[in-house]
Design goal:
6-stranded parallel beta sheet; L-rhamnose isomerase / sugar isomerase; globular; binds manganese (II) ion; single chain; 3-stranded parallel beta sheet; manganese
């Protein structure tokens, strides 16, 4: 299914007058406060977030999975779904593939399809947390960290294969997330597991094309519940540094213990030029994979404040690979992703409103109250008219969720694909 541009234009007609009034009012206020509104709108329009290929089917838990029907059953259809998201939001201009769930059968056809929908291939993700059908070795007790050299070699080879697949599509980064760890004390020798992981990553790194990055993701627990080999940003940074300049840490919002100061983590990694990617989601308890901004929108704003500061002040840090890494089982996945994209843009827009010069002056004066006023002044601004403007200028929908429903997208997908299709993934 492809959404026709004129359908969006027609849908927008109903709300355009209201939008113009709201935008003019806000733009006027922000301009008087010293903001360059056009520059903010164009930054929002340029900000693109990759959609992971595994987030387009209904999400699940280990207890069950409830379909919303009309799921994409192959990679072509997954890219079409991202095309739907992108045409409405103008923010989802990239896909992040998971291998082996999404190995293209026809590379040229996939590239053409993505190109026609203005979708780029972002980081490719390897999978050494599940056993594959014809594999000779099992990852039951780990992959890159495994005590068995044969298992480690199989996992290294898989990552090298993923790089080759990504290279054919125009990807420029490999994301490595390991489930490796232990469930019981004494099961693993921590030092051996870490050293094996480092050595394996170095072998993968040697196969990385020159213009590629390796992104090392961390997670404190799950699926292992006693120890995880790459459990935090310190472990990730050590491993990245052990590989070389093209290896970076990847921060996933949900991969922290409760109340971790994630904004401080991204800040220091950018200072050191080592933040390579960021995965968005939200959580109440752990790695809940909830819609971005649904639980802790202020924390997301504080993280964006540091990301914006880094983008403006840390030329030593590369452009980041942005991706949504969430999928919840009680929402239509496409509606869930639209809400996440909106929340990301909202936090970004609010962070762009922070008067950095005034904040710096207040910090030097140790005017703690003023520092808080500056941050919260930006946070309390209703920036949605700016988001609407950024979407409108690129041909997107004033309200992507309302347009998605008004255009009856899910029912069209069900008519096209049937009820019982199932997307690959967890
Ligand atoms: Mn992630």
């Amino acid at each position: 299914m492809k959404i026709q541009k004129e359908h969006i234009v027609n849908y927008n007609k109903k709300g355009i007058e209201n939008h113009n009034q709201n935008f003019d009012f806000l733009a006027n206020k922000l301009t008087n406060q010293g903001n360059d509104v056009n520059a903010i709108v164009s930054k929002l329009a340029d900000f693109q977030v990759a959609i992971p290929s595994w987030a387009l089917g209904a999400g699940g838990t280990r207890f069950g999975r409830f379909s919303f029907f009309g799921e994409p059953s192959n990679l072509e259809q997954k890219i079409e779904d991202i095309g739907v998201l992108h045409s409405l939001t103008q923010t989802a201009g990239a896909v992040s593939l998971h291998i082996p769930w999404d190995i293209p059968s026809d590379y040229n056809a996939i590239k053409e399809k993505a190109n026609a929908l203005d979708i780029k291939f972002d980081a490719v993700n390897s999978n050494t947390f599940q056993d594959q059908k014809d594999a000779s070795e099992s990852y039951k007790y780990g992959s890159l960290s495994n005590t068995s050299q044969a298992v480690r070699e199989q996992a290294i080879q898989h990552n090298l294969d993923v790089i080759k697949i990504g290279d054919k599509l125009g990807s420029k980064a490999l994301t490595v997330w390991l489930a490796d760890g232990s469930c019981f004390p004494g099961q693993n020798n921590f030092q051996t597991a870490f050293q094996n992981t480092q050595d394996s990553l170095i072998d993968i790194y040697k196969g990385l094309p020159n213009d590629w990055k390796m992104l090392v993701e961390y997670k404190p627990y799950e699926p292992n519940f006693y120890s995880t080999v790459i459990q935090d940003w310190g472990a990730s940074l050590m491993l990245a540094n052990g590989c070389g300049d093209k290896a970076y840490t990847l921060v996933d919002l949900g991969h922290h213990l409760p109340n971790s100061n994630i904004e401080q983590i991204v800040s220091i990694l950018q200072l050191k030029g080592k933040l390579g990617g960021f995965h968005f989601n939200d959580s109440k308890y752990g790695d809940d994979d909830l819609t971005v901004g649904s639980i802790k929108p202020y924390a997301l704003f504080l993280i964006f404040n540091e990301l914006v500061y880094g983008m403006q002040n840390n030329p030593q840090n590369p452009d980041l690979a942005w991706m949504i890494d969430a999928s919840h089982n009680v929402k239509d996945p496409l509606e869930d992703l639209i809400q996440s994209l909106e929340a990301i843009q909202e936090a970004y827009a609010k962070a762009l409103l922070i008067d950095q010069a005034a904040l710096k002056a207040a910090q030097i004066d140790n005017d703690v109250v003023k520092c808080q006023e500056i941050l919260q002044g930006a946070y309390r601004t209703d920036v949605r008219p700016l988001l609407e403007k950024a979407r409108l200028e690129r041909g997107g929908a004033l309200s992507p969720i309302q347009a998605y429903r008004a255009l009856d997208v899910r029912n069209s997908l069900i008519k096209e694909r049937g009820k019982n299709t199932v997307a690959t993934g967890l």
